[in-house]
Amino acid sequence: MPDQTTDRPNTPLLDQINRPADLKTLSDSQLTQLASELRSETISAVSVTGGHLGAGLGVVELTVALHAVFDTPRDKLIWDVSHQCYPHKILTERRDRIRTLRTKGGLSGFTKRSESPYDPFGAAHSSTSISAALGFSVARDLGGVLPEGQGDAIAVIGDGAMSAGMAFEAMNNAGHLDKRLFVILNDNEMSIAPPVGALSSYLSRLYAEEPFQELKAAAKGAVSLLPEPFRQGAKRAKDLLKGIAVGGTLFESFGFSYLGPIDGHDLDQLLPVLRTVKARATGPVLIHVLTKKGKGYAPAEAARDKGHATAKFDVVTGEQKKTPSNAPSYTGVFGDELVKHAARDDKICAVTAAMPDGTGLNLFAERYPSRCFDVGIAEQHGVTFAAALAAGGMKPFCAMYSTFLQRGYDQVVHDVAIQRLPVRFAIDRAGLVGADGATHAGSFDIGFMANLPGMVVMAAADEGELVHMIATAAAHDDGPIAFRYPRGEGEGVEMPDVPQLLEIGKGRMIQTGARVALLSFGTRLGETRKAAEALTARGITPTIADARFAKPLDREMILDLAANHEALITIEEGAVGGFGSHVAQLLADEGVFDAGLKYRSMVLPDIFIDQASPEDMYRVAGMDAAQIEAKVLEVLGVASIGEKRA
Ligand SMILES: Cc1ncc(C[n+]2csc(CCOP(=O)(O)OP(=O)(O)O)c2C)c(N)n1
Ligand SMILES: CC(=O)[C@@H](O)[C@H](O)COP(=O)(O)O
Ligand SMILES: [Mg+2]
């Protein structure tokens, strides 16, 4: 029951836990009680902050069991993606700050080395945990020294994350090195969307073949039944538990001992199994644990995404407190527009890497299921697959978040760009994204796409522009093309009745002024306009242009702006090495600096910016309207308001 005075759950046992070592003093039945309190505390905390709820609720018992059995931080507990780490944070000396999750100055929503010694390896992109656990195991065996010591390495990886190539690369290597390490496969039959692909079917078969109830009944005696040692002997744990032979598992062929499936919500199963493997394992062991995403909170269990991510919510009703939107989201505009194009052109198809809802392709999948491909968490494969779809005469839109496209970069270079294949990259979550912080910021795509020969790179300044760019990309058959747009809602502009086909490499003038030209690439155009208004009030009316293209550049427009203004400032939501760098290169090559142009480039600073609201993050980056105004004043040598007052 919640404590009515504070709106917080009653957690008498949890209140006595300051660190994981305290769990060692609890009996198994107290650990079960602790898990229940930990679940209530997690729900309560996320109701205040919003964030990733379902995954954490699914691993509450697992978190308790792991901390009760292993000795963190000496043992290295590595959470894959780490969106399920909130219960872990509560148990590892961060409960006092748990209601600051994902906010400016607060706890990160992911594990983070700089935050706690209990987070030995940061994550937020998926499928890195087995590689990391293997690295720790090898470092330990080679005598690597850490202040907290080095014990076992344990990776907890979800069924979605397990489908990615990197997880298999790591297992391949781990089986070969034969190091003692533990992989907990947390199988909840969910990714963000229902998982897809052969591995998912394989895992379902694994436990469909096991009469789970029988296994549950046998589990209390599991310790004595476990094979010894795990790595040897023909019989598998599951064979022993059930008394029949069902053949080797995929994981065993990688050199892992396989144990499971076990009920990940039952501490009577988890504790003996973990204690035994800790005592006896010599090589790599995979423990297959079945859990429910959203477990123990009805609204999450009932939700389509099992409470994967939520806004702040009312704990009693589960109702989310979403801020009403004033404009369509960029993602929504992309999803709607692509469906319209697909209706007219049956060659248009779409690829997502496990993010059908996040990229807006869910609508496409509904309407044109045979032309929409969720490839799972497999950005590398997704890009190459799209390249071959293009080579095969289709018109693929490869829709990925900027940050996740990073994982498919060699494929962008090697399979798409070098072969000049017309893949259309819809790059969502471009720029700073807010609560997910630095790991999810789309900071680098302008740089890494625009430096590729033959790649066309566009950025939408608003949702209307996005409509034009989708149409332009659909029509562009001569090589690859990319368009980027941010997370969240658009500017509220009037939507075009008919999409325009943009001339490749041509920008547009927004307003003509004097002395200084502001050349924006992307959605900073809104802040640029605000800055221009403030400057106009001070008697300086800047010229504003929207570049639309970082590659190819609108040379004519840029050189014209340079020739007719005392100063030129470029503004983009990306790191150094992007649009501004290309403009600077052009200006240098054309000798414009020799003629005395004052040039400044406003880019994301050379730091990883921690989570906050996107507005706050852009302020930290020095890129809001007031900071654009200040930059203009500085470059023109005009005293700013602050300086005048001083
Ligand atoms: C490389 C990469 N691609 C996509 C994502 C987005 N993503 C975050 S969690 C998630 C689903 C993970 O599913 P699973 O591993 O089964 O964990 P669960 O949420 O079910 O606990 C996805 C696709 C990501 N974090 N990293
Ligand atoms: C953990 C993860 O990678 C995703 O859940 C991500 O947080 C989704 O971000 P959006 O909310 O922008 O879709
Ligand atoms: Mg899952």
TrEMBL record:
Binding site for Mg(2+): 159, 188
Highest taxon in the source lineage: Bacteria
EC number from the UniProt entry: 2.2.1.7
GO molecular function terms noted in the UniProt entry: 1-deoxy-D-xylulose-5-phosphate synthase activity; magnesium ion binding; thiamine pyrophosphate binding
Pfam family, one: Transketolase_C
Note accompanying the cofactor annotation: Binds 1 Mg(2+) ion per subunit.
Signal peptide limits: none
The protein's annotated pathway: Metabolic intermediate biosynthesis; 1-deoxy-D-xylulose 5-phosphate biosynthesis; 1-deoxy-D-xylulose 5-phosphate from D-glyceraldehyde 3-phosphate and pyruvate: step 1/1
Catalytic activity: D-glyceraldehyde 3-phosphate + pyruvate + H(+) = 1-deoxy-D-xylulose 5-phosphate + CO2
Any single GO BP term: thiamine biosynthetic process
Positions with a binding annotation for thiamine diphosphate: 83, 124-126, 160-161, 188, 297, 379
Transferase as UniProt keyword: yes
Entry-linked SMART domains: Transket_pyr (SM00861)
Ranges of residues in domain Transketolase-like pyrimidine-binding: 328-493
Presence of the UniProt keyword Ribonucleoprotein in the record: no
InterPro entries registered for this protein in UniProt: Dxylulose-5-P_synthase (IPR005477), THDP-binding (IPR029061), Transketo_C/PFOR_II (IPR009014), Transketolase-like_Pyr-bd (IPR005475), Transketolase_BS (IPR020826), Transketolase_C (IPR033248), Transketolase_CS (IPR049557)
Cofactor(s) the protein needs: Mg(2+); thiamine diphosphate
Matches recorded under CDD domains: TPP_DXS, TPP_PYR_DXS_TK_like
Keywords: Isoprene biosynthesis, Magnesium, Metal-binding, Thiamine biosynthesis, Thiamine pyrophosphate, Transferase
General function of this protein: Catalyzes the acyloin condensation reaction between C atoms 2 and 3 of pyruvate and glyceraldehyde 3-phosphate to yield 1-deoxy-D-xylulose-5-phosphate (DXP).
Family classification: Belongs to the transketolase family. DXPS subfamily.
Subunit and partners: Homodimer.
Descriptive protein name: 1-deoxy-D-xylulose-5-phosphate synthase
Organism per entry: Parasedimentitalea psychrophila
